[in-house]
Amino acid sequence: ASGSPQVIAKHSGLWCEAFQCCDVVDTTGAGDAFQGGFLSALWGFGTRGSNQCSDKGRYSNEEVLLGHTLRVATRVAAKKIQKPGAREGLPRRDSYIESEFECMSDMSTQRSKLPQL
After folding, report:
1. CA 109/CA 26 separation, integer angstroms
2. CA distance 30 to 50
3. Greatest pairwise CA separation for the chain in angstroms
4. Mean of the per-residue pLDDT values for the chain?
5. Digit-coded pLDDT (tens) for 5-14
6. What is the spatial distance between Cα 92 and Cα 28, in angstroms, rounded to a whole number?
7. The pLDDT of residue 19
């Protein structure tokens, strides 16, 4: 998606840049927001697995799904810190998050279309 923070493999892990276009108002609850976004995305799509990789084999399917999961979590935390309080900024609907979920869903759908071995 346009404006996506880059996810890179580094030191045996995946790292995600922060969203650059946010005005920090209050960081209360940002870590919880990140964890909630991460677990929601991971549970919702990561457990389904995938046989498709959108990065020409450079990364494993799990790394691709985790990359999308990290971007969702980072976006949730970025939206939260733009408002005061622990819950005020949590996104209810967000087109960026929805596009990440759509991409992850497409990967899972592709898996379900593969012939069973």
Report:
1. 38
2. 30
3. 53
4. 76
5. 788 888 888 8
6. 18
7. 79
Token pair recorded at residue 6:
């880059």
pLDDT tens digit sequence for 4-57: 778 888 888 888 888 777 789 999 999 999 999 999 888 877 555 444 444 545
Predicted confidence (pLDDT) at residue 61 exceeds the cutoff of 80: no
End-to-end CA distance of the chain: give it in Å, rounded: 33
Q: Which residue has the tokens 């389904």?
A: 48
CB 33 within 8 A of CB 77: yes
Quick check: pTM over 0.90?
no
CA distances from 97 to 70, 81, 85, 116 (A): 11, 16, 21, 31
SS (H, E, C) the chain: CCCCCCEEEECCEEEECCCCCCCCCCCCCHHHHHHHHHHHHHHHHHHHCCCCCCCCCCCCHHHHHHHHHHHHHHHHHHHHCCCCCCCCCCCCCCHHHHHHHHHHHHHHHHHHCCCCC
